[in-house]
């Protein structure tokens, strides 16, 4: 009897995707690299334009005295009294210097990275709020240059320069406009960071959300880098930036809701770039 024939079956091979393997490795990096480049370009533009718009010292100092007179009329001219109360306490001065230096850009970068990884929609909203408020700040810096208290011949001590060189590493002098005191984006952007930490974090980070803008406000005044009014102006500009960014986001999401039959009242974009609809 003849042996039964066995079909000649070749081992199956996985289907090829039709694209080089390197594409699969590079693709996930495109979005974060794009965002990093966008934020870096915005930061360089901000500092570059800010440096180019540095005004005449005489005009900037005169405007600083105008700000001080305005504060006096409101009873807010407390810069001398506050610095005099702490200048003899080395620990307090050092703490305020460190808040001013390390509590701003490092905190902003850490928050942006955290939001990018955990809530892409929150990241975009914070980024755009900073873009808008930074643009407003640049316009004010050019139109109404103001010397900070430390450079306005008011007898106040520049504690950051006197006791630390770290700040010059984070912000090289060539990129800094010395006469851009109003508004204080140190205070404004730290307020934005606090708002987003409060919204998206829990537990002890909510305490940081409250402490960050409050400590920064104290630091900019005690180190003689800003007047009280500068901080209030920074908070106002930050609020305008956040409201504007939120309004733009809603305008962008609305057409998506109309395309889905008008069921969308609001939506968010998840970290995988898919739109989550809330009906």
Describe the structure.
The chain has 279 residues and is mostly helical. It is 67% helix and 3% strand. It has a two-stranded antiparallel ribbon with strand order 1-2. The model is unreliable at 260-267 and 269-275 (pLDDT under 50). The chain is globular. 32% of the residues are buried. A hairpin with a 5-residue loop joins strand 1 (266-269) and strand 2.
Gap between N and C termini: 73 Å
- Summarize the biggest pleated sheet: 2 strands, antiparallel
Secondary structural class = mainly alpha
Average pLDDT confidence is: 82
Strand tally = 2
| Spatial strand arrangement across the major sheet | 1-2
What amount of the residues lies in strands?
A: under 5%
What are the low-pLDDT stretches, counting only 5+ consecutive residues below 50? 260-267, 269-275
Which outline best applies? globular
- Which radius of gyration do the C-alpha atoms yield? 26 Å
Order of SSEs, N→C?
Answer: HHHHHHHHHHHEE
Short description:
By secondary structure, this protein is mainly α. It is built from eleven helices and two strands; from the N terminus they run αααααααααααββ.
List keywords for this structure.
279 residues, mainly alpha, two-stranded antiparallel sheet
Helix-strand layout with pairing:
Layout: H1 21-52, H2 57-74, H3 79-86, H4 90-102, H5 105-118, H6 120-143, H7 159-163, H8 166-170, H9 185-200, H10 204-222, H11 228-259, E1 266-269, E2 275-278
Antiparallel strand pairs: 1-2
């Amino acid at each position: 009897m003849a042996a039964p024939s066995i079909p000649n079956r070749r081992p199956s091979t996985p289907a090829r995707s039709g694209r080089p393997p390197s594409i699969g490795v590079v693709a996930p990096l495109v979005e974060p690299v794009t965002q990093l480049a966008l934020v870096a370009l915005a930061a360089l533009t901000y500092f570059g334009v800010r440096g180019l718009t540095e005004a005449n010292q005489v005009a900037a100092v005169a405007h600083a005295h105008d700000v001080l007179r305005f504060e006096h009329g409101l009873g807010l001219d407390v810069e001398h009294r506050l610095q005099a109360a702490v200048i003899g306490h080395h620990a307090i001065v050092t703490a305020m210097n460190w808040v001013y230096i390390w509590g701003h850009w490092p905190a902003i970068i850490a928050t942006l990275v955290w939001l990018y990884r955990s809530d892409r929609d929150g990241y975009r909203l914070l980024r755009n709020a900073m873009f808008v408020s930074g643009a407003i700040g640049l316009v004010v810096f050019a139109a109404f240059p103001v010397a900070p208290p430390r450079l306005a011949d008011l007898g106040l001590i520049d504690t950051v320069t006197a006791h630390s060189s770290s700040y010059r590493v984070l912000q090289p002098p060539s990129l800094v406009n010395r006469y851009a005191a109003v508004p204080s984006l140190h205070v404004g952007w730290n307020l934005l960071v606090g708002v987003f930490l409060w919204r998206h974090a829990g537990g002890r980070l909510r305490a940081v959300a409250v402490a960050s803008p409050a400590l920064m406000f104290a630091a900019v005044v005690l180190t003689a880098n800003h007047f009280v009014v500068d901080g209030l102006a920074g908070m106002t500009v930050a609020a305008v930036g956040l409201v504007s960014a939120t309004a733009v986001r809603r305008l962008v999401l609305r057409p998506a809701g109309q395309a889905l039959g008008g069921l969308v009242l609001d939506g968010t974009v998840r970290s995988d770039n898919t739109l989550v609809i809330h009906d």
